[in-house]
Task: structure prediction
Amino acid sequence: MQGGGIPGMKDAPDKPQPGLVWGLNADNLTAYTKKALVKFVKQVPHLDAIQFRMHNESGLKEGEQESFWTDVFRIMKTNALNL
Result:
């Protein structure tokens, strides 16, 4: 969770909280992100734009970026036909 967190969720980093994702780590974050993106674009069918934080802004290490973004763009092309 970024600095400042969510008001009223002071325990969020330490235990599950309603409405927040729980249990992500370096080993499962990429797989989770890809699945969540597919679910998101399917639940918002009239989405007309989306912005991604890329390179260092994304939090991905340099060796992770190419394969991650290749997969993300494939997901977008396959699942978000309105974009």
